[in-house]
Records
---
Amino acid sequence: MDYQQLQADIANELNRSDLAGDIPSFIRRAENSLRRDIRLQDYPPITRLSDDEPTNWLLEDWDDIYFYAALVESAPFLKEDERIPVWRTELDRRLEEMHLKKWNQAWRYEIPTRPRRVYGG
């Protein structure tokens, strides 16, 4: 996925064709929020998406995080505050999955395991 596809997916989800000028600001606010959320988790910096910079590590690996973060940011603008808990739950679930995957990868080779003993056989 790239920046243009993300914008199209957001417009499609919102079922609004009149938001082309607003969706980039939803994405920008989502990036700001995500930067704060993951800054303390030892992730690489998030490069801001643009037409000149159409992708970054987060969009390549976790496009659904961008998608739901932008939807959360769109809800107050659209006066659809009732959608915030739904989209925030999806976003939080995916952020947790990303954090768990990183944690599992970090510890996979650092935790020594003892050979299992086989008894009676």
Note: The chain has a mean pLDDT of 90.
---
Amino acid sequence: MDETEFGISKDSLRRADELERELGELVSGLRCLVESRVRQSDMPGVTWLSRGPDCFLVPFSQLVGWNLTPEYYSSEAQVDVVGRALAEIRSCGVGAIRRKLDTMVLERRVTVGRVSYPLNPVTLDAIGEVLSLFGE
């Protein structure tokens, strides 16, 4: 069999394997960057009692639109839902992650499975910072 007839050679297969590994590392790094930026983005006025997704106080003056879900005010909970949504992406490509992040910003929420969670403005800003790395 003449592998060059189909554009396949040992070198091209090795290079493709190397590129897939590099892409996997890039995608993993991108997911970690998103989670890190969101984790560093606490809502103003939130006082942590201990580090956990629902151990904090929110002053009455900070309640946004009567949203009483802890996921909205907790950066740890926001990291959890954003991370789970990114983990659901079947494609390992950067484009798929970008589209998911764009959707989160446009809809101001994230859907994990069949449950939708609102994203707070601080989380949306953090995701926006990561999207700005794409340069458009």
Note: Residues 10-39 form the longest helix (30 residues).
